[in-house]
Amino acid sequence: MSLTWVDGVAADTVPADDRGLNYADGAFETLSCQDGRIQHEDLHRSRLTRALAALGVPSAAKQSERLFEEAGQCLETAGHTGVARLTVTRGSGPRGYSPPVPPQLRSILRASARPNSSLSANTSTGHIANSRAPTVTRSKRSSTRCCTSWSGLRSFCCSHPGQSFSPC
After folding, report:
1. Can you give the pTM of this predicted structure?
2. Which carries the bigger pLDDT value, residue 130 or residue 34?
């Protein structure tokens, strides 16, 4: 059995004009949950904040805090144990690649049982959508290294000289 919430409300549909559906315009976190509590929530929140900032979302930290508070309430109310995927998109918008300014974020939370796989038992990940086949590049204007997607969109996993760097 799985449970789904859209913007904190139990739902089973997402509007067809959602930018996450049409353009993979958003980010997600895969969460491990125990008795309604998100495991390592602070790490997930921090990573989502970085992803939202990379997408140009104003007040990324405040938005991330709000989204995790909303997700936590849903999962706690359900007493969920298993995994959950928190997807955040820039919401509904007109056709075209230019995102709406400011974006009206939409959250999609789907909770389900833990998969029967030893590889996924303790896995939690976060990604910016549309980040297939990442490559490492160095900015021409600085020595900052960035992980970019196959389509050339900049991802959130940038580092500064002297810091460790791991691909997306």
Report:
1. 0.70
2. 34
